[in-house]
Write a structure and sequence with these properties.
Oligomer: single chain
Radius of gyration: 28 Å
Number of strands: 0
Helix content: over 70%
Mean pLDDT: 90
Order of helices and strands: HH
Number of helices: 2
Distance between the termini: 24 Å
Structural class: mainly alpha
Strand content: under 5%
Length: 124
């Protein structure tokens, strides 16, 4: 039953692809977190140098404003990636279930073939 073997291979490929996607999302989320933490440290440093922490103050450092904006954008992107990861996690679980079904069918067919061969050997 070549078609079942191909189906199992296809499902295995899909599971591996979904795992790779999850790994990519995890690394991107971690990278965004690291970058946001670095920006936070730069913001604190700029505010300390200027002695001004009020965003609405006329002399608030422009670099700190830009860094805040970038940090906020990173956090927003990170939240979107977390949502994508949750969706990918669900897709991975579905793909693993489909793989398990395909493997069960393949095992059942293989057992049926081996039982048929054994019964022919006994009668023959």
């Amino acid at each position: 039953m070549k078609s079942r073997e191909n189906l199992v291979r296809l499902k295995l490929f899909q599971v591996n692809e979904k795992r790779r996607r999850m790994d990519q999302l995890d690394s991107m989320i971690a990278e965004f977190d690291r970058m946001a933490a670095e920006l936070e440290a730069q913001i604190v440093s700029e505010e300390t140098k200027a002695g001004i922490t009020d965003l609405n103050h006329f002399a608030y450092p422009t670099f700190a404003k830009a860094a805040r904006l970038r940090r906020d954008n990173l956090r927003t992107s990170q939240a979107e990636l977390v949502q994508q990861r949750e969706s990918a996690d669900t897709e991975l679980a579905e793909a693993q279930a489909e793989l398990a079904k395909a493997e069960a069918l393949e095992n059942r067919d293989a057992k049926g073939r081996s039982d048929a061969v054994a019964s022919r050997a006994m009668t023959g």
